[in-house]
Amino acid sequence: MYERRSRVIGIICVVICALLAGILVYMVYTNNRNRQAQSEAMTALQEEARPYEVELQNLKSELASLEDSVSYTSEEAEIMVGFVVSDVSDLSFIEEQAADYGFSPVIIIDCTMDMDVIEEILETADESWEIMLYASDFPEEVNDSILSVISCLESMNREHCGVFFLRGDYSTDSNIQLLADDGFIGYTDYNSETPKAGQAEDGSVYFDYSYVNSTGTMMSSRVSALYSSKSSILVAISMASINFGTLTEADAVNILDSLQTYTENDDCSFSTVAAVVEEYSAVNELETERQADYEKQTAEIQARIDELEEIIDEIYAGKQK
What is the DSSP string of 220-242? Predict the structure, then answer.
């Protein structure tokens, strides 16, 4: 009797275990099947959404690229070579270097010099050379000297380049306005980090300069930065410093050798003030056109982006279109 009861209980236990095992297997099977179904459903949704997501990503990249295209950038770095002249005897050295290195020099004249010296320089300088005016100091009365030199040029049927060589702390709003009143369309403006050039909000063209009046001038880093920024710079060599011995003719030649190396490597090119002014004078018009085109394109792209995001949201919400 006891053995029969034990056998029955054993059978019942086996049956219960078998049932539990079957239930467990069924649950695992059902769970795997549900997970597979969910995975297949998600894969189907991803496949349906993929072309929209690819288009969306491409449009966002295009939008970012358009933002970078609005600002004006030069195609290459440009170097203008100038000489701050102190005497007519300086011109022979300048003529020799211009011929050797193949650039058109900019003759920078200090308007505070003796007018007889200025007249002699203007009468002797090659008519193809550009004339840039300059003041070593900039008190209020210096404007009379600037106007006197302009009158002298007019009497000789010559013109200055329209850009004033404005150094350091003298690059103030009041001085720039004073120069604009005198008819100047641009000025030089030093930036200690990366050379910059362009057109200011008031329409004035400006570009950077490097004033070379000592052997310690770091031209290599300046020109390297110039090349990276695709900007323009005036390298102004002080002839007075050469005449007084703080800078030698050999130092000046070494600088020109360095600049020529950059031009031969196509890192930059020799240019004229006139060419740089013409380039940057077109900036406002170009930027206006680019801005209008940019706003039109971005509006169209953004509208499509909004539409794509809505389509993708509806797909993943199960509302397939």
Answer: HHHHHHHHHHT-EEEEEEEHHHH
Those residues with Cβ within 8 angstroms of residue 273's Cβ, 6 or more apart along the chain or in another chain: 80, 106, 130, 132, 161, 162, 163, 234
Please give the Cα distance from 42 to 196 (Å, whole number). 53
| Strand, helix or coil for residue 141 | coil
Average pLDDT over residues 181-208: 86
Residues 72, 287 contacting (CB under 8 angstroms): yes
DSSP H or E segment with residue 97: helix 90-101
Structural tokens at position 201:
């909000």
Give me the phi and psi of 295, to 5 degrees please: -65, -40
Start-to-end C-alpha separation, the chain:
72
- C-alpha to C-alpha distance for 39 and 294, rounded to whole angstroms: 42
Tell me which DSSP letter residue 165 carries.
B
Q: With beta carbons less than 8 A apart as the criterion, state whether 149 and 118 touch.
A: yes
Query: How is residue 42 written in tokens?
Result: 């998600």
Global confidence as pTM: 0.68
8 A C-beta contact, residue 52 and residue 308: yes
Kindly state the percentage of the chain with pLDDT values over 70. Answer: 78
Q: Name the token pair of 228.
A: 């990276």
How many CB atoms within 10 Å of residue 181? 9
Query: Is-contact 231 279, C-beta < 8 A?
Result: no
The mean of the pLDDT values for the chain is 82
DSSP class of residue 217 equals -
Torsion over CA: 231, 265, 83, 119 (sign): negative
The residue with tokens 């792209």 is 301
Residue for token digits 């200025």? 118
